[in-house]
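Example 9 (inverse folding). The structure is encoded as follows.
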């Protein structure tokens, strides 16, 4: 095995090491960024493997990563909210959510999803080598190009839709951004386009955070003091997101 197949293997092994480190940091409760870093590693793993769903072992590992990503999403949302409340001096509201966070971390560490992902990572290298040994390594470049073209096409279609859904657009932007970072040479995107993707992801993420917080405030009375400011911030985020999306659409139109 050589070339791209070897490169993918090394990349997955690097991600595996990072996931083990994040696991250890969560166990030791050393810092507040362990969960965030774990989720980034999961997204990178999924992006790396998405083109290879037809190759033995890749679909299973990607699904394990997706399952853990879904499990950790609400916990990360709570983590971000708790940090915001602390920064705003709303210590009572922040402290009341700390036990929920700690319970969430404990449930994550004891979860079947985490254990199954780590197990799948252990057996994946051998399955990858076996698959490439059957001649599938010759398909890798083609599979990557097909996946990137599909991601690009889906995002371009959404950008052309004047009634685009910000939730879906945010997911499509993230998907293409991480796919491009996984395979920069195959993506064909310029640095300008990648910058535009990152900016759109950031502004859409800001809007999404405030949208989620306002939903929570409907069921959590101690968040009511934040509602007026959150509505104003969400309106600003909407404007910034729409501008970033327009710039991204213009960048894509020049391709």
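The amino acid assigned to each position is listed next.
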């Amino acid at each position: 095995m050589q070339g791209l197949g070897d490169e993918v293997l090394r990349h997955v092994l690097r991600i595996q090491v990072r996931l083990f480190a994040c696991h250890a940091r969560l166990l030791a409760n050393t810092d507040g960024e362990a969960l965030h870093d774990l989720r980034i590693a999961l997204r990178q793993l999924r992006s790396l493997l998405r083109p290879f769903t037809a190759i033995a072992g890749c679909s299973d590992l990607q699904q394990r990563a997706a399952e853990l990503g879904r499990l950790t999403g609400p916990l990360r949302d709570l983590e971000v909210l708790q940090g915001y409340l602390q920064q705003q001096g709303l210590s009572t509201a922040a402290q009341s959510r700390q036990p929920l966070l700690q319970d969430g971390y404990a449930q994550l560490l004891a979860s079947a999803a985490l254990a199954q992902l780590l197990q799948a990572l252990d057996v994946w290298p051998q399955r990858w080598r076996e698959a490439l040994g059957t001649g599938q390594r010759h398909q890798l470049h083609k599979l990557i190009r097909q996946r990137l073209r599909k991601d690009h096409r889906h995002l371009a279609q959404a950008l052309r839709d004047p009634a685009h859904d910000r939730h879906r657009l945010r997911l499509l932007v993230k998907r293409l951004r991480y796919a491009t970072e996984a395979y920069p040479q195959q993506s064909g995107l310029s640095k300008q386009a990648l910058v535009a993707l990152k900016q759109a992801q950031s502004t859409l993420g800001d809007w999404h955070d405030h949208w989620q917080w306002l939903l929570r405030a409907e069921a959590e009375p101690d968040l009511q003091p934040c509602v007026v400011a959150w509505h104003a911030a969400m309106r600003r985020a909407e404007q910034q997101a729409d501008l970033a999306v327009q710039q991204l659409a213009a960048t894509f139109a020049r391709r």
